Every structure is written in C-alpha cells, then in structure tokens.
Amino acid sequence: MNQKALEEKLQAAFAPFFMKLENESHLHAGHAGVKEKGGSHYSLVLVADSFLGKNRVERQRMVYELLAEEMQNKDRAGLHALKMKIYSVDEWQKKG
Asked: How far apart are CA 69 and CA 47, in angstroms?
C-alpha cells in the first residue's frame, strides 16, 4: 500500500490537526501479510476535531470504514495491519 495515498485519504476525510503515519512493514519481514514492495503494516497517530465526543471504538471504526477497500485488498499489496492512536484536538493539547 502506498503511504502517500493513505495519507492523502486520511487528510481528505479528517482534515487532521496532526497526523503521523509510519510504515512499519520492515519490522514484520517474513511474516504473513508482508509485501515485498509498498507497505502493509502501519502505525498511525491521528488528531482531528472529527473525533470529539467519540469513544475509542467509534474512532477506530471511522478510520477502518474509510480504509475498508485497502484492508480488503490485503492479499494484493493492500493494508494488512494498522496500529492507531486517535485523539480529538482537545485531548491532544491536554496530553501535551
């Protein structure tokens, strides 16, 4: 999965205050779901007003629904795993 395409999709959907997407596929070399090229395992920190008033599960569901096609295509260089930390802007600012 192309990291730039993922970032653009997340940016368009959530207009984040802060976003950090890291390709961690190299940490899973030799594991099932790891592709030779592109990314299959990512770590995401996402901060947006879209998450205000939503619990952890609702926030994750919002991201998974957005990336459903990428997750379904995991056998064809799609997204295999996504580790997420998701915050509202207020939570992020209080966190420091």
From this structure: 22
Q: What is the block-wise mean pLDDT of the chain (96 residues), using blocks of 10 residues?
A: 90 98 76 56 96 98 94 71 96 93
Chain-centroid distance of CA 10 in Å reads 8
Domain segments of the chain as ranges: 3-95
* Amino acid sitting at position 52: L
Alpha-carbon span 22 to 20, nearest angstrom = 6
- Between CA 81 and CA 33 the distance in angstroms is 8
What token pair was written down for 34? 């790891």
Task: Name the fold adopted by 3-95.
Answer: GMP Synthetase; Chain A, domain 3 (3.30.300)
